[in-house]
Amino acid sequence: MSRQEHSDLPPVHEAWLPREHPMHRPRHGKRQLAALACAVLFFTAPVVSWVFGARAEQLENRPLAAFPSITDGWGFFTGLNTWATDNLPFRKDAVQSVGALSQGVFGEPPRLAGGSHTSPVGAGQVDAKPPIDENVFPAVIEGKNGWLYLGHDVSYRCVPKRTLDQVIAGLRRWRAVVEASGRKFQLVIAPDKSTVYPENMPDDYAGKDCSTQARNEFWRRVPDATGAVDLRDQLRAVAARNQRPIYHDIDTHWTHEGGITMVYQLAERLQPGVTSSWKVLPSRRYPHSADIPDLLGQDRTVPIQAYSLAPDGGSADNTQFKPSDFHQPLHLESGAKPGMITQPVRMVGDSFTQFASPYLAATFANITIVHPDTVAVDPVAAGKLLAEGEIVTFELSERFVAGGRYPMLDPAVADQVGAILAAYPVR
């Protein structure tokens, strides 16, 4: 007698058995088809909508995810989800709808991008548990007194892309290649709002332990190891003198006063005493669209106090307000005056420099600013740009440095730029 005749299993697939058979199991074909249709719609919607003129909006403080490369292997498939999510048209309207529904029905803001309040394993800790999933962290951390914090302040520290040793090595490599070409080099780390104002963070939040440990280690090691300008004390001193916070309560960035503080510190390190003649006075006030509420589906603004700056102490304001994200280099130039840095300066800076650029224009006679991501995308063009300067200055955000998130931290990028700088040395 054959093996099949002794088997208790039916000779056909269970879906083909009569419905009254106890082992009958339908294929659920309609559900599978619906799921497949939804998946196809999700991944093709960005492309189809783009053809008809719809464009995705950037909601977070980072560029929209790029379409994954087929050379990424399995990373091509895992990267599709992030790309499709970022590039969905009307995403901002959807986020706002979710926020309104959550507030109206449940009386609480939506938990976007995770929201777990369980503290995960500390960064770098040896543990049998799987690596931390970055999605367990909320996009927005609701603090005390109505303060909002960007979730990346925590998640990037807890889930770094590079070790702190690698970050330090990358920054030191940049200093080495710039100074080897005869140029001066200055590095400024813009502290996270959660670093300067930790007292308004909630008492408990996802990643509290690992992010606090990483932050303390970062500030203990990085300034000494890289020569970075540590602005924390100066920022707190300016805030105390003016009797108001130097970071916005619902925006992740510092105020114009923070930008001016950075410009003062840079200028003094390049030319001690140069700021003694500077005259800074309040000028216009204007509303600024806060970036963090956007992630909660809210349109909120913060009042911005801008300033005039006369480097020679006179009455003529020398600032220039030219909005830019620096992905296309921004060149600022004005006639040299007493109290100005007259050597050509080339700067790598991100969104924190946006609040400093008017005052850089007022005090640096010839300066061009480019975004860190642009440097990594085209090191050759970046090298040619930086070679135009006799001084090279970096402003980098703490969360991106601590998390190893800047692609330009790869020493290979510094080496490519360094080769061009070496070909055009400053004597």
Automatic annotation (TrEMBL):
State its location(s): Periplasm
Which residue spans traverse the membrane? 33-53
Q: Which GO terms describe its molecular function?
A: transferase activity
Q: Is-annotated flag, keyword Iron-sulfur?
A: no
Major location category of this protein: periplasm
Q: Which residues form the AlgX/AlgJ SGNH hydrolase-like domain?
A: 140-273
> Which GO biological process annotations does it have?
alginic acid biosynthetic process
Which region ranges are annotated with the description Disordered?
1-25
Q: What Gene Ontology cellular-component terms does the record carry? A: periplasmic space
**Keywords, ordered alphabetically:** Alginate biosynthesis, Membrane, Periplasm, Signal, Transferase, Transmembrane, Transmembrane helix
Q: Which InterPro entries match?
A: ALGX/ALGJ_SGNH-like (IPR031811)
Q: In which pathway does it act?
A: Glycan biosynthesis; alginate biosynthesis
The protein, known as: AlgX/AlgJ SGNH hydrolase-like domain-containing protein
Tell me the organism: Saccharopolyspora phatthalungensis
Query: What lineage does UniProt assign to this protein's organism?
Result: Bacteria, Bacillati, Actinomycetota, Actinomycetes, Pseudonocardiales
